[in-house]
C-alpha cells in the first residue's frame, strides 16, 4: 500500500471510528461489538506505525461520546479516560517493556500489577462528601458526564452513606451493569408489551440508568462493581483501594488478583476466559494496572490513555455466513468502498450483517464473490471481516467481481490510484457532498445537535443545503417558505425551533474546530489544533492559505517548521485551497460566523515555563519521562540545539551537544538543577 492509499484508508477508518463511538456512548445503539470497535482502532494504530506522518493526524478524541441534553452536565475533576488494548501475549509484553523503558527498569521485569475482569457496562463516578453520596455521573466524553445521582440512589449495591464515615471528598469509580438473567427477563417483558428488546445487557444498563424517571431505573435491577478510589490520600496501592471499597460496603469483582510476572497475567487471563460462560454478567477481557499509585503517577498518560494500565481483550470469534450482495459506498474523499451484505449471522452474541471489503485488490486476493459461503470474524484487521471463502460450497454459476468503471451515485468515470477507485466529481457527487456536510456538523467540528445524516440528506434533496454556509441560512429561508419546517412530515414547532437554536449557538466557533470542519485531507483535530496555535486567528490563517494556494515558498516553509506537519499534509492543504469552490466555501462561512482567536491552554507554572530546553547525556530517569515532566511544567522540549535554546540539561556522558552549547552560549543545567526548576 502506498502513502496515498494508506491516507485514504486512514481517513475512512477515522470517520468510521467516530461514527461508532457516537453510537456506542451517546446513543446507546451500537451497530458493532466492542471487539469489532477495538479491531478498528488496532488497524488505525498499525497504519500510524507504518506511516508515522499519519499519526500526527490522530484526533485527541475524548473517550466516550457527547453529553446528552436531558441531564445536567457534570465536569469530572479528574478525567475518566479509556485504556489501550492488548490482543496477544506479544502486545502484553510490549506494554510491560514500555513501562520498563519509561522508568529505566531492566528489560524482562514485571512491575507488580492488579488484574481484574473488564466488565462490559457503563462507567460511572460517585462523589461522597463527609461520607454521604452527593453526586453520581456517567463518563460522558471523559471530561464531562451526565448527572445520574437520582437514578444511582435507587441501586441497592451502591451505599448512600459510607461506614465508617470518611471525612472530606472521596470519589469512587466503577461499572454499572445488568445481570444477564435480569436482561433476558427484561426483554421478555418488553416483548410482551410490544416494545423493542434491548440488543445486549450493556445497552440495557446504559438506557436504564439514563431514564428521566428514577422509578424506571429502579425497576431495571442494575448493579455496580467498584474498582477505583480517588481523593483518599492514605491509600497507596490498588489492592489497598480494593480493601477500602469492600470495607465500606461496595461490591468488588471476586476475580481480582495481584500479579508479579507475565505468567501470572496469562494464568489470570485463562482463568477468567474459562469462567466467562458461567458468569451472570458480561465481560470482554481483563484489565491490568500498576499496583503502586506513586509509580502510576510517574508513568502518567499518553494521549487519552494511561501508561500504567491496559485492557487485555478476548480472542475473536468466527461463524459462517453467506454474501447476499456486494454494494459500493462513496466516501467523503470520493473513494469507492465495496461492502458485503451478509445473511444475518450470530457471531459471539452479536448479529453481523455487513462487512467492509476495503478495496478490489482485497476482493481479488480472497476471490470473494456474491453468493459465497464465508467465514466471518468479529475481530482482526478489518471488522467485521470476511476471513475466508469456503470454495467447496460456492454456487456453480458464480462469477468474479469486477471493479467499477463509474461512480455508483453520480456515474462519473472513476480514476484509479493503486488499489483505490475514486470519483473525481468532488463538488457534484451527491454522496461526497453529503458526507462532507455530515463531517461539518459532526461532534469534533461544529457539533450541531439534531442535525444528523438523515436530516442532511433531507435538506440536500430539498435543495435547501448544498454547502456548509447554507446551514446558517436555514432559519431565514424557513421564515419565508410556503411550507415551513414545522409543517413538514416528521417535524413540529418544537423540533424545528430546537434545530434553529442549535444552529444559532454554533455561529461562534473556535479556530481549531473551524479548521477541522473544512474537511481538508489529513487535517484532523490534532493538525487543526497545531494550525490554530500557529496562526492564532482566522484572518492570519486565511491569508496564509491564500498564499499557499499560489505555492508561496515562505508559507510552505513556515508550515513545515510546525512540529507534526510534513510535506504531504502541506500538499493536501495547498490542493484544497487551490480549488476555487473550496475557497468560496470558506469565504461564505467566514461571512456568517464569528471564529474566535486561539486560546493558549494553561499549563503548570514553573521556572521553565515558556523556555526551550534540550536534553543530552544519561539521566537517572528515562528521557521520555524527563520530556513529559518538562512539558507538564510548561517548557518546550527540542531535539537539537540552536541559538534560541534557553537551557541544555546535561546528564552524565554528555556528548557534542555540551560543546555546542558552550559555543552558542546556551546555559547548561545539571539534572538536579533541572529538577529544582520544574518543581
Whole-number tally of structural domains: 5
The CATH architecture of the largest domain can be named as 2-Layer Sandwich
Number of helices: 26
The radius of gyration computed from the alpha-carbon positions, rounded to a whole number of angstroms, is 27 Å
Give the C-level CATH assignment of the largest domain: Alpha Beta
Describe this structure in words.
With 679 residues, the chain is an alpha+beta fold. The chain folds into 5 domains: 3-55, Helix Hairpins, CATH 1.10.287; 73-313, DNA ligase/mRNA capping enzyme (D-amino Acid Aminotransferase, Chain A, domain 1, 2-Layer Sandwich); 430-506, 5' to 3' exonuclease, C-terminal subdomain (DNA polymerase, domain 1, Orthogonal Bundle), CATH 1.10.150; 509-596, DNA polymerase, domain 1 (Orthogonal Bundle), CATH 1.10.150; 612-678, 3-Layer(aba) Sandwich (Rossmann fold). Helices cover 38% and strands 20% of the residues. The protein is built from 26 helices and 26 strands. Strand 19 and strand 20 (420-422) form a beta hairpin. Helix 1 runs antiparallel to helix 2, helix 13 crosses helix 14 (453-461) and helix 18 (511-517) crosses helix 19 (525-535).
Amino acid at each position: 500500500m502506498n502513502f496515498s492509499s494508506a491516507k485514504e484508508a486512514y481517513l475512512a477508518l477515522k470517520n468510521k471510528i467516530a461514527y461508532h463511538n457516537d453510537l456506542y456512548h451517546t446513543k446507546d445503539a451500537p451497530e458493532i461489538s466492542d471487539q469489532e470497535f477495538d479491531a478498528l482502532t488496532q488497524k488505525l494504530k498499525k497504519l500510524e506505525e507504518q506511516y508515522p506522518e499519519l499519526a500526527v493526524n490522530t484526533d485527541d478524541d475524548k473517550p466516550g461520546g457527547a453529553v446528552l441534553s436531558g441531564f445536567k452536565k457534570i465536569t469530572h475533576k479528574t478525567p475518566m479516560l479509556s485504556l489501550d488494548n492488548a490482543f496477544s501475549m506479544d502486545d502484553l509484553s510490549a506494554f510491560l517493556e514500555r513501562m520498563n523503558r519509561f522508568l529505566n527498569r531492566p528489560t524482562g521485569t514485571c512491575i507488580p500489577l492488579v488484574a481484574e475482569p473488564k466488565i462490559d457496562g457503563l462507567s460511572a463516578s460517585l462523589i461522597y462528601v463527609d461520607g454521604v453520596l452527593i453526586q453520581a455521573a456517567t463518563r460522558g466524553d471523559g471530561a464531562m458526564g451526565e448527572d445520574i445521582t437520582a437514578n444511582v440512589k435507587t441501586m441497592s449495591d451502591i451505599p448512600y452513606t459510607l461506614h465508617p464515615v470518611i471525612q472530606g471528598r472521596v470519589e469512587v469509580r466503577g461499572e454499572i451493569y445488568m445481570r444477564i438473567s435480569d436482561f433476558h427477563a427484561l426483554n421478555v417483558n418488553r416483548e410482551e408489551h410490544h416494545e423493542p428488546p434491548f440488543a445486549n445487557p450493556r445497552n440495557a444498563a446504559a438506557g436504564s440508568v439514563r431514564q428521566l424517571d428514577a422509578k424506571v431505573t429502579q425497576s431495571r435491577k442494575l448493579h455496580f462493581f467498584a474498582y477505583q478510589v480517588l481523593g483518599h490520600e492514605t491509600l497507596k496501592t490498588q489492592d489497598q483501594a480494593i480493601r477500602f471499597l469492600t470495607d465500606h460496603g461496595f461490591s468488588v469483582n471476586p476475580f481480582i488478583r495481584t500479579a508479579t510476572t507475565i505468567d501470572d497475567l496469562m494464568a489470570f487471563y485463562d482463568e477468567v476466559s474459562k469462567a466467562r460462560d458461567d458468569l451472570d454478567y458480561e465481560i470482554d477481557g481483563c484489565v491490568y494496572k500498576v499496583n503502586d499509585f506513586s509509580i502510576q503517577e510517574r508513568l502518567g498518560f499518553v494521549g487519552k490513555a494511561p501508561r500504567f494500565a491496559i485492557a487485555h481483550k478476548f480472542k475473536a470469534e468466527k461463524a459462517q455466513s453467506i454474501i447476499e450482495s456486494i454494494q459500493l459506498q462513496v466516501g467523503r474523499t470520493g473513494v469507492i468502498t465495496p461492502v458485503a451484505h451478509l445473511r444475518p449471522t450470530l457471531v459471539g452474541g452479536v448479529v453481523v450483517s455487513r462487512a467492509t471489503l476495503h478495496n478490489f485488490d482485497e476482493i481479488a486476493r480472497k476471490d470473494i464473490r456474491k453468493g459465497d459461503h464465508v467465514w466471518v470474524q468479529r475481530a482482526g484487521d478489518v471488522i467485521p471481516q470476511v476471513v475466508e471463502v469456503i470454495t467447496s460450497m460456492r454456487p456453480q454459476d458464480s462469477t468474479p467481481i469486477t471493479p467499477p468503471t463509474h461512480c455508483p451515485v453520480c456515474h462519473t468515470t472513476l480514476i484509479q490510484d493503486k488499489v483505490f477507485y475514486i470519483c473525481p466529481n468532488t463538488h457534484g457527487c451527491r454522496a461526497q457532498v453529503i458526507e462532507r456536510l455530515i463531517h461539518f456538523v459532526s461532534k469534533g467540528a461544529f457539533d450541531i445537535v439534531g442535525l444528523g445524516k438523515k436530516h442532511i440528506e433531507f435538506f440536500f434533496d430539498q435543495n435547501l443545503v448544498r454547502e456548509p454556509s447554507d446551514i446558517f441560512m436555514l432559519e431565514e429561508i424557513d421564515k419565508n417558505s410556503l411550507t415551513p419546517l414545522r409543517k413538514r412530515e416528521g417535524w413540529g414547532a418544537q423540533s424545528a425551533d430546537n434545530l434553529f437554536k442549535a444552529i444559532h449557538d454554533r455561529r461562534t466557533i473556535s479556530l481549531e474546530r473551524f479548521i477541522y470542519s473544512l474537511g481538508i485531507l489529513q487535517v484532523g483535530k490534532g493538525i487543526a489544533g497545531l494550525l490554530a496555535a500557529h496562526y492564532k486567528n482566522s484572518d492570519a490563517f486565511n491569508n496564509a492559505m491564500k498564499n499557499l494556494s499560489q505555492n508561496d515558498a515562505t508559507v510552505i516553509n513556515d508550515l513545515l517548521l510546525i512540529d507534526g506537519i510534513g510535506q504531504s499534509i502541506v500538499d493536501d492543504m495547498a490542493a484544497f485551497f487551490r480549488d476555487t469552490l473550496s475557497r468560496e466555501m470558506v469565504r461564505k462561512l467566514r461571512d456568517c460566523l464569528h471564529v474566535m482567536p486561539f486560546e493558549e491552554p494553561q499549563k503548570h507554572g514553573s521556572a521553565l515555563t515558556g523556555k526551550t530546553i534540550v536534553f543530552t547525556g544519561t539521566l537517572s530517569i528515562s528521557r521520555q519521562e524527563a520530556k513529559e515532566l518538562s512539558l507538564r511544567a510548561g517548557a518546550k522540549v527540542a531535539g537539537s540545539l540552536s541559538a534560541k535554546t534557553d537551557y541544555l540539561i546535561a546528564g552524565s556522558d554528555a556528548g557534542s551537544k555540551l560543546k555546542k552549547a558552550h559555543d552558542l552560549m546556551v546555559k547548561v543545567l545539571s539534572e538536579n538543577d533541572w529538577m529544582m526548576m520544574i518543581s
